[in-house]
Structure formats: structure tokens, C-alpha cells
Design a protein that fits this description.
single chain; 5 strands; two-stranded antiparallel ribbon
């Protein structure tokens, strides 16, 4: 009889009772916090905060596994992606100058 009168310090409903899946919700929350922290760290490590700025301009060149180049430009709020192909451009135009690559890898443009 003395076991029947024992008072429990908490109810079963408060901590999930006999449900073995009650602690999974906490693990999910910890996982979300970890993912957000990882994203913030990656953006700061690669200095990509300008992606979220409305006034910044940036250009990214991306190379896929199949050696295909893609140029992604961001001007203000507008983002434009272009694929680079090996096909020759056709059309009229005028020569504006010549570009030279120096030994150290820098490029110099000399107008005509």
C-alpha cells in the first residue's frame, strides 16, 4: 500500500511519457541550428555576403565536371547566368584594340 501513495515529481505527459520518439524533436532542433551555423560560416569564409546585398555587383565563373563554363553575374537585384560555348560568334563590328597576357598572368588591353 505504501507504493500506491507515492507522488511523482512530474507527469508523464510533460516529458512524453513512454514515447521513445519524444527526444527526436530536440535532436531535430539541434540539427537545424548546426546547419544554419554551417551556412553562416561558409558564407563568411568564402566572402559571399555580397550575394545578399541589393547594391553589390559581382561575377562568378563556374566550371562543371564536363568542362562547361557558366558565367553568373549579379547587378543589384538582378542575377543573370550565361553558358559559354565553343561556337564562333557571327556578326559585324569594329576592332577596338588588342589584349595581351603578360608573363605573370595579368592581362593588358591596348586600344587602337
Amino acid at each position: 500500500m505504501r507504493f500506491m501513495k507515492r507522488v511523482r515529481p512530474h507527469s508523464d505527459d510533460e516529458f512524453g511519457g513512454d514515447d521513445p520518439m519524444a527526444g527526436i524533436a530536440n535532436l531535430f532542433d539541434v540539427g537545424l541550428v548546426f546547419i544554419v551555423g554551417l551556412l553562416v560560416t561558409l558564407f563568411s569564409a568564402y566572402q559571399l555576403q555580397d550575394l545578399f546585398s541589393e547594391t553589390s555587383d559581382m561575377t562568378i565563373i563556374k566550371k562543371s565536371e564536363s568542362k562547361e563554363l557558366q558565367i553568373i553575374t549579379k547587378k543589384g537585384k538582378h542575377i543573370k547566368a550565361m553558358k559559354v560555348t565553343r561556337s564562333k560568334a557571327k556578326g559585324g563590328g569594329e576592332r577596338l584594340g588588342t589584349a595581351y597576357r603578360l608573363e605573370d598572368g595579368t592581362m593588358v588591353y591596348v586600344p587602337d
